[in-house]
Amino acid sequence: MKAGIERRFWGLGLALLPGVAAMPVQAETCVIDDAEREVCLAQPANRIVALSPGATELVFAAGAGDRVVGVVSFSDYPPEAKQRQSVGSHTRLDLETVLALEPDLLVGWVTGNPHEQLEKLLRLEVPLYLSEPRRFEEVATSLERLSTLAGTRELGQGAADEFRAGVAELRARHADARPVRVFYQVWDEPLMTVNDEHLISQAMSLCGGENVFGELPRLVPRIGEEAVLTADPEAIVAGGMGEANRDWLGDWERYEELSAVRRDNLFFVPPSLIQRPTPRLLEGTRMLCDHLETARGRD
């Protein structure tokens, strides 16, 4: 998986840029980011700009929230993040504002930030850590790596250990649960879901769920309503256009032939709890597990 991320990133020609190479050997602290690049700092980062809402959450969770000086739009957790300087959106960064903040570390999003803007930042030799956890364990290691760069290792390690313990507890609790066939809706127009490589599908598996579209080749495939009717999931789980918007689930109620509709197994999980690769993924997964346990009781 990481090799694929690395190929997509380095395919842009970034390996030829002067800012990509590791800093000189006298650098004191180095980690490997999610694009398999070595990121080195001569001293702990004191001015961090996070270039995605998920990156913002990870840095705060790693104990370095007081070092964050800039965030992108929709960086709404923790609440303190809303007080930081905005540097645009994750899809269009305000590079002038980013540079004016004089960051000593940027935390970017491998596949979410504009590649041409990341290239420019690398040319300017701004230290850039690329983040994109694709496994539960990678959420924990992200906390460890980011806290290493920020000099908050003890806090980051504690958060990582707590996350791992929560994952282990859920895995043990649902190890022998009856499988439930699940369709997770990640978007409405076009209708989109996730395959088994996605963290959301891994959360389903942790709860004893089976992703009815898990074998599709794309990470976030587009599908049609007819495909959902054919798959006939036992449960439908959706986020929505907001943290409390259940409208997408209501759209399925007209299909009374669906097992999920017939059994009233239409469940909502706030999108920020399950669609961001952060420690709050554990909270969203617990909610998902509770929903699937309810579905098991409605055979």
From TrEMBL:
Pfam families: Peripla_BP_2. Residues 1-27 form the signal peptide. Residues 47-296 form the Fe/B12 periplasmic-binding domain. Keywords: Signal. One of its GO terms (biological process) is cellular response to iron ion. InterPro entries: ABC_Transporter_SBP (IPR050902), ABC_transptr_periplasmic_BD (IPR002491), Vit_B12_bind_prot (IPR054828). NCBIfam families: TroA_like. This is Fe/B12 periplasmic-binding domain-containing protein. The lineage of its organism: Bacteria, Pseudomonadati, Pseudomonadota, Gammaproteobacteria, Oceanospirillales.
